[in-house]
Write a structure and sequence with these properties.
Length: 352
């Protein structure tokens, strides 16, 4: 099976072409933060992202592609696994209706739909960001009108946990695992014998390179209403895209920030350490969901290529369980694996 895989991120577009599990090409196109911010909205980036992908496919006979698969966006709660991209899904992600939050991953299904139609094949999403329905006790908040839902880096987190289980001769369904994904956003999840028990999304926990994370509610209300010109879109931008390291240090590039630390930037050192501290606190909070009976804590995502960040989190949580650092992400491979299983009839694609 020839499969095209897409993963639009906040400051990158990942494109891969696979023949079954064999990589024909896989490339990450990084975008300058200001380059994507100038579009004003996620949806406005569609043609820009299409141009990036088409440039990578210029020597490919797209008519031979059997399936296009993309990361799922911030849809309403869905099941883990694969879904066919349909008109309802595309419309919901395009218009950001029914509680869909703005996020670069929302472009995945939209782009896959366009490219699949050009190739004459079907488009799918797999292990969407919103995949997994929390137990009822984990969904209740202090506002009856607001119910928690799971929004996390499901695709990479589950893939890494499954890979770790294989490495130690176990099945994912035999382990209790806490997974922290540290990339442009930070999210965490805890699985008990393969079942999602709780998660911490990027608006509920640690700040990251460009996201604010959770903040004191009364202070946020004061901030939100202090300037009548500061509307909802500006607040959303500050929460997701203009917060975290970007807000404190003027840069979301961890490599640049660490270089500044090496030259004596004590403020940068403190802010990065505070991020690690907040990640560790969130990990510890998830241990409650398995009564502290955790087999492993997995640290994954792009920021785990930083020894400073990895050790800053590890040293604070290894009292809970052994810590396994699995730097980077294998989301395209996980997407392709799911798509191939659907095309081969090993899995059934769900209807959205």
């Amino acid at each position: 099976m020839l499969v095209l895989a897409l993963n639009p991120g906040s400051t990158s577009t990942k494109v891969g072409l696979f023949e079954d599990d064999r990589v024909l090409f896989l490339e990450t196109v990084n975008h300058n933060h200001d380059e994507v911010q100038k579009f004003g909205s996620i949806g406005a980036q569609k043609e820009f992202r299409l141009g990036v992908i088409r440039e990578k496919l210029k020597d490919v006979d797209v008519g031979k592609i059997d399936g296009v698969v993309a990361i799922g966006g911030l849809l309403p709660p869905v099941q883990a696994g694969g879904y066919k991209v349909n008109e309802k899904m595309v419309r919901m992600l395009t218009e950001e209706t029914d509680g869909v939050s703005p996020h670069a991953s929302n472009l995945g299904a939209i782009l896959a739909d366009i490219l699949a139609k050009e190739a004459g094949c079907e488009a799918f999403i797999y292990d969407a960001v919103s995949a997994g329905i929390l137990p009822e006790v984990a969904r209740i908040t202090g506002f009856p009108e607001i119910v928690r839902r799971s929004l996390s880096h499901v695709l990479n987190s589950r893939a890494q946990a499954i890979e770790y289980a294989k490495k130690i001769g176990k099945k994912f369904e035999e382990l209790n695992v806490i997974i922290a994904h540290l990339g442009g956003g930070v999210s965490l999840s805890v699985y008990k014998k393969g079942v999602l028990m709780d998660s911490v999304g990027d608006d509920l926990g640690p700040f990251s390179s460009e996201r604010s994370g959770v903040v004191p509610l009364f202070d946020f209300l004061d901030f939100a209403f202090a300037d009548e010109k500061r509307g909802k879109k500006e607040l959303q931008r500050r929460i997701r895209g203009g917060g975290g390291l970007k807000a404190h240090l003027g840069s979301a590039d961890l490599r640049e920030i660490e270089a500044n630390i090496e030259t004596g930037d004590t403020k940068a050192e403190l802010i990065v350490d505070a991020m690690c501290y907040n990640v560790a606190k969130a990990i510890a909070s998830l241990a409650v969901a398995v009564h502290g009976n955790c087999n492993v804590i997995i640290l994954t995502g792009g920021m785990m290529n930083s020894k400073r960040v990895a050790s800053g989190v590890r040293e604070r949580v290894e009292f809970i369980a052994p810590v396994e650092v699995m730097a980077g992400e294998y989301e395209l491979e996980a997407l392709v694996g799911g798509c191939v299983r659907i095309l081969n009839g090993e899995e059934r694609a769900l209807e959205f």
